[in-house]
């Protein structure tokens, strides 16, 4: 028999929840009238069965539709939800299950943990319409980029910027070029910012100043090399 350690060895390790399922021994029947699972935890076939159980009518849809979702709830991992802490929705969720998933970006398997869902929907205030399609490792860089972009726009729109703010703006802009969100053309802005910083002070925080310059040179060298390769 394959142990969980072997079965989940290739799964992405979550720093908070681990790698393999977190068994609670709880396994509510998704068709029971007092049980309502998140749409991400229920297959179309189960939704249709539930509809039939509640209304006595058949949900008439194409057979094909039943194959469009494959939900992999891990049995025995359910966690009871606190409905008063969820954001309002037409259908509240009574239980969360560990879900077996494949990351949309890196294609590695990962678990969207029941405890993680509870944290999302009850502590962070995420709407019940949100779902998790990327592993924790792939979600992080996206979050960092989103934060950088937000900070960049905030700094850019300040009516007046001090030296520290200009250094931070240049830093944000460089990060966004390095992540390919911005094109290297945006280096113009970074150069202008660095120039302004160097004019405004005699003893600019040399560490960050030199660091910015070094990063500009790396991007310039990569851009030149691309141009050369492209023109051959
Ligand atoms: Zn991933």
Provide an overview of this structure.
This protein has 232 residues and is mainly α. The chain folds into two domains: 131 residues, no CATH class; 89 residues. The strands form two sheets. The protein has a two-stranded antiparallel ribbon. A two-stranded antiparallel ribbon has the order 3-4. Helix 5 packs antiparallel against helix 6. The mean pLDDT is 86. Bound molecules: zinc ion. Zinc ion binds next to helix 4. The site of zinc ion (ZN) has 8 residues, from helix 4.
Number of strands: 4
Overall tally of domains: 2
By DSSP (H or I, 4+ residues per run), the number of helices equals: 7
Task: Categorize the overall geometry.
Answer: elongated
Portion in beta strands: 5-15%
Class per helix and strand makeup: mainly alpha
- Radius of gyration (CA) equals 25 Å
Terminal residue distance: 58 Å
Largest sheet: 2 strands, antiparallel
Low-confidence stretches: none
How do the helices and strands follow one another from N- to C-terminus? HHEEEEHHHHH
Explain briefly what this protein structure is.
By secondary structure, the chain is mainly alpha-helical. It is 44% helix and 5% strand. The radius of gyration is 25 Å and the shape is elongated.
Features:
7 helices, two-stranded antiparallel ribbon, 4 strands, 232 residues, single chain, mainly alpha, binds zinc ion
Write the layout of secondary structure elements.
Blueprint: H1 4-7, H2 44-55, E1 79-80, E2 95-96, E3 99-102, E4 109-112, H3 114-123, H4 136-156, H5 163-178, H6 187-200, H7 206-231
Antiparallel strand pairs: 1-2, 3-4
Helix pairs in contact: 4-5, 5-6, 5-7, 6-7
The protein binds zinc ion.
The site of zinc ion has 8 residues, from helix 4.
